[in-house]
Amino acid sequence: MRNTDGLRKGAWTEEEDILLRKCMEKYGEGKWHQVPVRAGLNRCRKSCRLRWLNYLRPDIKRGDFASDEVDLLIRLQKLLGNRPVLFSFSFFFLVF
Questions:
Q1: Where exactly are the structural domains of the chain?
Q2: b/e sequence 10-42, b meaning 16+ C-beta within 10 Å
Q3: Do 57 and 49 touch, CB atoms closer than 8 A?
Q4: Most C-beta atoms within 10 A of its C-beta, which of 28, 39, 76, 79?
Q5: Contacts 24+ apart (CB under 8 A), 17-22
Q6: Where are the beta strands (DSSP E) in the chain?
Q7: For the whole model, what pTM was predicted?
Q8: Under the phi-then-psi rule, with left for phi > 0, alpha for psi from -120 to 50, and beta for the rest, what region is 46?
Q9: Under DSSP, is residue 2 helix (H, G, I), strand (E, B) or coil?
Q10: Pick from 8, 15, 72, 86: nearest CA to 46
């Protein structure tokens, strides 16, 4: 599917993922406005950035939480309640 600018929309193909990975290996992250051209993709820069950051980046942790992470989350929720800003801020500094 294409939008009015002629850019592709919708699900990414395996070929597009490969092109984006190769571009990131060669040029690294940043200058997202240049990524679609450098990678040879007919996608907008925001779509390329989000695809890389949320799905393709090699250091993304996938899978279940470890038992110590679950314990930390439960303790933080008991301490802070359902205040997302404080909760995420505390979790970030306790884990990293």
A1: 14-56, 63-96
A2: eebeeebeebbbebbeeeeeeebeebbebbebe
A3: no
A4: 39
A5: 17/51, 17/55, 17/56, 20/48, 20/51, 20/52, 20/56, 21/56
A6: none
A7: 0.67
A8: alpha
A9: strand
A10: 8
- Other CB atoms closer than 10 Å to residue 59's CB: what's the count? 4
Contact residues for 19 (Cβ-Cβ < 8 A; gap 6+): 39, 40, 41
Q: Round to whole Å and give the CA distance between 18 and 28.
A: 14
CA 64, 65, 70, 76 torsion-angle sign: negative
Tell me the three state secondary structure of residue 43.
coil
- The pLDDT tens digits along the chain (96 residues) read 666 678 899 999 999 999 999 999 999 998 999 999 999 999 999 999 999 999 999 888 888 888 988 888 888 788 877 776 565 666 666 655
